[in-house]
Amino acid sequence: MEDEINTVTSHRPRSNIRPLSPMPDYVEHRNGVNEVGKLSAEAVVREYEAAVKEIEALGSELQLAAKNCEVMVAGVHDMIAEIKEFAAGYRDQGKRFFLQIEAVSLMTAEVRDTCEALKKKIATDTLGQ
Q1: What's the DSSP call for residue 26?
Q2: Tens-digit pLDDT profile for the chain (129 aa)?
Q3: Residue 42 contacts by C-beta under 8 Å, 6 or more apart in sequence?
Q4: CA quadruple 68, 72, 74, 78: dihedral, nearest 10
Q5: Which of 28, 41, 73, 88 has the smallest number of Cβ neighbours within 10 A?
Q6: What's the pTM?
Q7: With DSSP H G I counted as helix, E B as strand and the rest as coil, what are the percentages for the chain, rounded to 5?
Q8: Radius of gyration of the chain measured on its C-alpha atoms
């Protein structure tokens, strides 16, 4: 029977067999483990290692997303600074208009008072003659 197995396996096409990746350096076989145990342990640790690679890739994607968020936040902070500057300028302009309107109002009141005083003086001077 052993000859039959050797005959079947020796005629198997080698192109379909892909080489196994090297075992991770954090594991090594113990003495006395049979071939089936070694192969099973290697298969399991390789599956775990493949999952670890996927997890690490996800971590890299998250780092990139975080970096993009940081860039966006920095842009928002710049925009907020611009908005504050614009708001301060707008406030100053409102204050200037406020002061101008009050100055014109005071001047108008002064002109009215002067006109009233002048009318009274003219009326008094005219009546007194």
Answers
A1: T
A2: 666 665 555 555 545 555 567 888 899 999 999 999 999 999 999 999 999 999 999 999 999 999 999 999 999 999 999 999 999 999 999 999 999 999 999 999 999 999 999 999 998 888 777
A3: 20, 23
A4: 160
A5: 28
A6: 0.48
A7: 80, 0, 20
A8: 46
